[in-house]
Amino acid sequence: MRPAVFCLAALLLPIWPATAETLPVGLFSAGDLAGWEDKSFKGQTTYELVPGPSGTVLQAKTDGAASGRFRKIRVDLARTPVLNWSWKIEAPYRDIDESTKAGDDFPVRVYVVVERGPLGLRTRAMNYVWASARPVGTRWPNPFTGQAMMLAVDSGGAKAGAWVSHKRNVRDDLRAAFGDDVTEIHAVAVMTDGDNGGRSARAWYGDIFFTGE
Q: What CATH number did the domain enclosing 116 receive?
């Protein structure tokens, strides 16, 4: 068992400020993993930079493991609220109920993390996921903790094997999920995991960045 929120209370320094209308977070296409750290929940998902269709991408492989990569970065959501990324999966998981602890596995997910309160006790996380069973647009609380919300932005196998790009207004999504106006986040993370159901997956992540619109 594991929470779906990266515990960052002791990890938030140094923090890079958002100073431009386009804020890069993960420049994988340039072969750059600077600033990205590892967080293991159970075992190790393997992450490596590999050639992609238009530059280098981050490949993730799990065989019943759950670990992620995260970058501590302060993002001013008043200036750059829109998260941009692309990803690809080999296949979705089968026979899964993602609202349960046993089903809290995803071939790809991108987190944004809001660090709040002493020792991070009021930390919040928004998880953008490629669901296997839940329809696109569905939002639900993480079964391990109410501090994290899940949002299916892709679902099923129709787009498996193809690159899919997304743009999400994080400020709007956090307001809808938690009911308050969040003006900055403190970390971004990716994770490919299969620990709760002993599942295996291979997936890829493209560049991650924030923009004003």
A: 2.60.120.260
